[in-house]
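Methods, example record. To illustrate the input and output format used throughout this study, we show the complete record for Cytochrome d ubiquinol oxidase subunit II. The sequence lines were provided to the predictor; the line carrying structure tokens was produced by it.
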Amino acid sequence: MIYVVIVYLWTAILLYILLGGADFGAGIIELFTSEKNKQHTRTTMYRAIAPIWEANHMWLIIAIVVLFVGFPDIYATISTHLHIPLVIMLFGIIARGTAFTFRNYDAVIDNMQKVYNRIFVYSSFITPFFLGVIAASAVSGRIDPDAHDFLSAYIFSWLSWFSVAVGFFTVAICGFLAAIFIIGETEDEHNRKRFIRKAKQMNVAAVVFGAVVFVVAHSEGIPLDNWLFGNAVGIIAITAASLSLVLLWYLLLKKGKVIIIRVLAGFQVTMILLAITLRHYPNIVIMKGGRYLSLMEHAGQDKAIYSLGMALLLGSILILPALFYLLYSFNKNTGKWHE
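The corresponding predicted structure is encoded as:
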């Protein structure tokens, strides 16, 4: 049953990056859009993220619950030593959702709309940035469980160039996913080309920040190159992601390939996550001095794991059909789910 729980945890993280990432990316794209195109971008973004708006944070909640119930030591370590970036990320989620709601459904249209717009776009940037910071910090070896002062325990555990670089890389990935998703929601050729241009810009940004991540990781003694290229699966995954990127750029110039390019973008992110996590599996937190927290060695009691696994399996029977129906309902009403 432990493997069932681990698969659900990994899948929840992946889906949050893909769906939540595209959601956050909508605000990132808006942030880097010129004033003359902002209103049309907002309208298109609103229509594009509507199918996943109600459900994307479900995956984050599942991941947190799985850690809390199934791996309490891991949950306690992350939530203690990384509580500052975690709180900032959660505030970003709350601020973003609130701003999105008020700017679209507020009964009074006044100057506060400008405030809501700013909160929405900046929180859309901040939230995935700190999500990347948290992920990088968990495996960077900077968490010191023996720290006795505030800075060592709660600041230097996450404040590093590697974590910052991964944060910017995550932002670029989210912007790329959003741009790819939105291409299929455009209604004219001009805006289609504009969002294709955004997708390419965000993709270039992701490549640049990805290179920065490698440079910083090497300078800080983090074996990122070994994680990615130290085994056959990692090499195959990165090669597949690179080849699919070439194909995606080619298909961006072709009309009527909406579903294919979305699948390719999701496939790339999946391969990157697989390559990074598989190498040091089952170690999910790597701490100072070579210590680690393992999904196998630091799991909860067998009864807790069994109950959690059963809850996840039975819950899927209820949740997944409802989720698919939600997506179907939105896409049927908008008429935008097409090839």
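Annotations derived from this record:
The chain has 13 helices and two strands.
The radius of gyration is 20 Å.
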